[in-house]
Amino acid sequence: MRRASVFLSLLLSTSFTVSLSGSLVAPALADDLAPKLGEFAVPMTADTAFLRSANAPDYWAFSPYVKPQFTSSACSIATVTATLNGLRGLPPHAEDTVTTQPALLELVADPVWSAVSAEDGDGVTFAQLEEFSRKAVEALAQQDARLANWQVASWKPAANDAAALASLREKLAKNEASAGDALMIYFNQGVLTGDWDGPHISLIGAYDAASDRVLILEVDQEWYIPYWSPVPKLLEAMVKPTSAEHGVLEGQAGGFVSVSKL
C-alpha cells in the first residue's frame, strides 16, 4: 500500500560522491540491483499463451478498467473501482462516465476510507476492504440498476495447508468460469514480487488451472504491471501477517473479498 518511505530509506542509506562538476553521482550499483520481479512473478508481457488460447473472461472484462492507484495508499479504492466498473461494463450512453477512483470515494462518502487512501495514509485492513466494498456496491446501485442484487463476501484462509490450498483452487476455478463475479485479493505483495514486504490489494485477472498459476491485475503500476504467480505462493502471500513496521496494519493477513450476484 505504501512504498515511498521504503524508497527514501534506501536513498538515505546509499553513499553518494560528488563529481568534479559539483553534481551528485550515484555509486555503481549495477551488480547489486535486484530484478524488477522475483522468481514467483512473471510479467504477463512475457507469457501471453493462456490469454491467447483460453476464453479468460475475467481478464477481458476487468483489465480495461484497471488503473494505477491514484495515491501510494489507494490500492483498495483502485481495486474496488476496477472491480465495479468491470462488473457493470462500459456505460451505455455518451454522457455517462466511467467511474474514477476519486469519484467513487466521493460517492461512498466514507471519511475513514478517504483518510486511509490519501497519500501516505495507513491503508485498509482486510475487514475494512470488505466493509468499503459493500458500501461502494450499495452506493453505485443507487445510480446503476446493473449493480442491484449484488453481494459482497469474504474468504480468509486460516493457514497455509493442503485444505486451504484446495479451497483456494476451487474458488479460482469457479471465478474463472465467467465474468459474472470478481475476486479482490488482500495479500503480502513481497511474497510474490520478491521486493516490498507489505500488505496490498489487487484484482484476480485469470486462473490457468493447467499450470496452477493466477494472474494478478496489479494496481501498483508505478512499480509493476500484471504478473502470473503460482497458486501455492498466492496462498502464502495471503496468510503472511503484516509486520510491525506497518503500524496499525500489524498482524493483518489476507484472503479474498468477492462481489457476485445474489
Question: How are the elements arranged and paired?
Answer:
Blueprint: H1 4-12, E1 17-18, E2 24-25, E3 42-43, H2 49-53, H3 57-62, H4 75-88, H5 101-108, H6 111-117, H7 126-141, E4 150-155, H8 162-176, E5 181-188, H9 189-193, E6 199-208, E7 213-217, E8 227-230, H10 231-239, E9 255-261
Antiparallel strand pairs: 1-2, 3-8, 4-9, 5-6, 5-9, 6-7, 7-8
Helix pairs in contact: 5-7
Helix amount: 25-40%
**Total domain units:** 1
Q: Let me know the CATH homologous superfamily.
A: Phytochelatin synthase, N-terminal domain
Name of the CATH architecture:
Alpha-Beta Complex
Question: How does this structure look, described?
Answer:
The chain is an alpha+beta fold and 262 residues long. The protein has one domain (4-261): Alpha-Beta Complex (Cathepsin B, Chain A). Helix content is 36%, strand content 18%. It has ten helices and nine strands. It has helices at 4-12, 49-53, 57-62, 75-88, 101-108, 111-117, 126-141, 162-176, 189-193, 231-239, and strands at 17-18, 24-25, 42-43, 150-155, 181-188, 199-208, 213-217, 227-230, 255-261. It has a seven-stranded antiparallel beta sheet with strand order 3-8-7-6-5-9-4, sandwiched between helices. It has a two-stranded antiparallel sheet with strand order 1-2. Helix 5 crosses helix 7. It is globular and about 50 Å long.
